[in-house]
Specification:
This protein is of the alpha/beta class and about 750 residues long. Among the domains are: about 35 residues, no CATH class; about 220 residues, Glycoside hydrolase family 3 C-terminal domain (Rossmann fold, 3-Layer(aba) Sandwich); about 110 residues, Immunoglobulin-like. The strands form six sheets. An eight-stranded parallel beta sheet has the order 9-6-5-4-3-2-1-10. The chain has a six-stranded mixed beta sheet with strand order 11-16-15-14-12-13, with helices on both faces. β2, α5 and β3 form a beta-alpha-beta unit. α3 crosses α15 and α7 packs antiparallel against α17. The protein is globular. It binds 1-deoxynojirimycin.
Amino acid sequence: MINIVKYFWVLLFVFFGTFSIRAQKTIPQVETLLSQMTLEEKIGQLNLLTPGGGIATGSVVSKNVEDKIKAGKVGGVFGVAGPEKVKQAQDIAIKNSRLKIPLLIGSDIIHGYKTTYPIPLGVSSSWDIALIEKAARLAAKEATADGINWNFSPMVDIARDPRWGRIAEGAGEDPYLGAKIAEAMVKGYQGTDLTQPNTMLACVKHLALYGAPEAGRDYHTVDMGKVKMYNQYLPPYKAAVDAGVATVMTSFNDIDGVPASGNQWLMTHLLREQWGFDGFVVSDYTSVNEMIAHGLGDLQAVSAQAINAGLDMDMVGEGFLTTLKKSVEDGKVTEAQITQACRRILEAKYKLGLFEDPYRYSDAKRPAQDILTKENRSLAKEIATKSFVLLKNHNEVLPLKQTANVALVGPLAHSRNNMLGTWAPTGELKLAVTVLEGLNNNFPNVSISYAKGANITDDPELAKKVNVFGPRVQVSDQSPETLMNEAINLAQASDVVVAVVGEATEMSGEAASRTDISIPESQKKLINALVKTGKPTVLVLMSGRPLTIQEEFDLPVSILQVWHPGVEAGNAIAEVLYGNYNPSGKLTATWPRNIGQIPIYHSAKRTGRPASVTGEFQKFKSNYLDTPNTPLLAFGYGLSYTTFEYSNLTVDKREIKQGEPVEVSVTLKNTGDYDGVEVVQLYLRDVVRSITPPKKQLKGFQKVFLKKGETKKVTITLSPDDLKFYNNNLEFVAEPGIFEVFVGTNSDTQLKTVFDLK
Ligand code: NOJ
């Protein structure tokens, strides 16, 4: 009896406790507004449109946007920018719609706003979390100055298949690093107070698993078990949610057979119930409508499925706008479900302070103060220099000597349209500094001669496909032979050759998957011809993805990977080539030897038949007949002009109890001739556990600056959560047993110690 009474009170407390939490959380102003809204007006808030003018990312562009806003049929727009234009848009809503609800103004600010940073894969190669947060903060300051209050970023999709063009937009293959970057970007965009006019709503995307399409083909099927999902692919999205991200965008793919935009498990059970997300969820561009092509029914059916599954806002497709009322009448959707979605969108507007002042983001003075300032451009240059990865330094040709005459060649050496990188719709191509300009600006006394040498590709069909947003590949009127001869003549007359080669920007990005990720043939020929001149040759390699460069790597060349470096491209490249900044970037995605090794990533499993440690082929082992298992360049790889030596790896305790941290220390010495920065990386191997462990997983890193000859003790603390993983029941646990700790310069490091979790 006593127990029953006790449980009654416990239940009562839980019931009212939960109720009061919800009651506390609702915003009276929003509730009042909701009580005045018709069903149609609520549905209107769930509609996100793009009036066109900007770059469309789907085949549809919205029509009659102005009339729809007046009629209360639009909750937000994107592709509108500038304080004046945004004010006009808000005016339409405030002055002409019945309830005067301000609009959300969205945009894709993926790597900087007007001040374009390197592509995100490049930014991630800096491993500089504080800098990444600062860059996001600055991008938010610029974008909000131009009237934008909602950013469709960060894109945190883990990608282990470089054929997928959108690997360029994320932070690479690793969930630990990806989670840190996701958190930093959310904090940077949203700041500490969303009502401040220089902060904006962030939108983590694309929930979920968008980076794992079969065969690396964009929008293709994803099929993945839950254990892999939870351990390898979901952490960055969760980190964004834990950091307080205000909105989430769904992905185009299906998950366990249900497209993300109609997936109740994903949007309701995982995102809201397990992770406690309380913002709103927006679809990707027409992804609700695309559920028809996925095979889930007509527009009314898929729209009803989407809202019932937990989707709040419909991007561009207008399935919600045109069918939800009927679904309510047909009893397929409840008005309560629509009210709830509407509430979440209104709450976001409230959080931004838009009800208090709809023109908060329309200050005509701000663009001049905040956009493309000197400070912003110098940050863009800093990030670019820190994103470059030195892949090879043959005969230590780099850094270049200012006394040497340079032959600057290659189709990307003076190609302004290819500097910003994919998906920089808010950047301006004309502002970008080319490599030729960067060298001339920064080193006016160096003798530099320039020749294009080759087309990015000689294939006119490919050129047409990558020129969708304007000319990126310009096939010269001169013949390939003439172009090449010109470059060879320059090379022969110079002391050193710098060849800027690689991919045009739109050879990566959305709907830009490739099945051959090598350097295009026209440029391969150029590189080989240059090497034959016998002149020391440096390849400055631009790309939006890891490339297969085994052949070039085997040549006597040096290689600096610079991604697509953004608006300050040429200045940053010049600084690094001449050693004003010593490269410190590290790869955040593995570089395969050839396409057949894909997917290849550092945290793969050992299998029951591991290949021999020496790499020698063995029958009935997990290896290939024609290629080693190891990649060309490991995750975390990157050289410096100096060298570093690791020693004295220790842990503060050999045995720990559950819940205790472990301090890992190592001595790092700069043994080379230059000051430099090293990214010290810590990998963990859980030797025995209830589900098969990865070979090793990144669990900590630290960027350390060391003067030439200097030695430092570096300490990285492993938290109790770093030892945990999701087991077969999807419980997040640390299991007792031995953990091996590896610390070093990349994921191949063999320097090891151990501790025992009791
Ligand atoms: C489609 C892309 O997948 C998404 O990332 C982007 O935010 C939207 N288009 C809006 O431009």
